[in-house]
Amino acid sequence: MTTTSLIIQSLQEINLQHPQLQTIVALTQAAAMTSISSHAVRLEGVGIGPQTFNEIQQHCFSNAWDVTAIETPRPLSDFKLVAMDMDSTLITIECIDEIADMQGLKPQVAEITEAAMRGELEFQESLIRRVALLKGLDASALHRVFDERLQLSLGAAPMLKAIQAAGLKTLLVSGGFTFFTDRMKAMLNLDYSHSNVLEIDNGKLTGKVIGTIVDADEKQRTVERVCLELQITPQQAIVMGDGANDLKMMGIAGMSVAFRAKPVVRAQANVALNFVGLDGILNILH
């Protein structure tokens, strides 16, 4: 990898004299080191190969630092859209796992969720299997999950505030359910949302999904459709996700962000945020 800059950031304050940081400066032969904030630094004029970058990643990981290599820095103004996965990206939970918990079925459902997110199980099949396990559950369980368990991920609020203030549009695209995405869209003043519709009959879940399942292909199509509507290209979109079913929409984006993601996703993303919050993307776009 040849790069012009490295951004290192942490939830803790970064001491510019930290021995590990000094080691990284020496490894990269950086022309300059500038402080972005007390929690983030930028190394400029860096030229490194994959082996050296891998060594730097190990140094950073041992200190709970995130490191991002940027070959061509882009300002926030380059982008017009931020598209986000919901479960375990914009919010901390997997909604379907928490719904299943109301049935005493969380371990069985969570196991299928994990396999799908790692890319070991095709998403459509995994969703059909998981939703089927919810058959007969009272729909009030959805309200309980939203009211009692749903929380925004670390840094989500300041990230959204900054991108909305800059005029970027927002899209929530999820393999989860409209019950949650519709409420998140209204609560956070998002511009677009797209997800799966749970069938409910007489106040009970039927164990089925209505209509097209929002899988990896549908997520990509949704990003493309919204970009077309906004008269922009996917290169003007930032796409955030954590699981294998996010990879296709991340792959067409101008910047892809893996947040607390599975290894298969981290490996393919432009930016991997393992420790800092979603607002860590702002340090990379300065």
TrEMBL record:
It is an enzyme of class 3 (hydrolase). It catalyses: O-phospho-D-serine + H2O = D-serine + phosphate; O-phospho-L-serine + H2O = L-serine + phosphate. GO terms for cellular component: cytoplasm. Signal peptide: none annotated. Belongs to the HAD-like hydrolase superfamily. SerB family. This is Phosphoserine phosphatase. SUPFAM superfamilies: HAD-like. One of its GO terms (biological process) is L-serine biosynthetic process. GO terms for molecular function: L-phosphoserine phosphatase activity; magnesium ion binding. The active site is at 85 (nucleophile), 87 (proton donor). It comes from Undibacterium jejuense. Keywords: Amino-acid biosynthesis, Hydrolase, Magnesium, Metal-binding, Serine biosynthesis. InterPro entries: HAD-like_SerB, HAD-like_sf, HAD_sf, PSP.
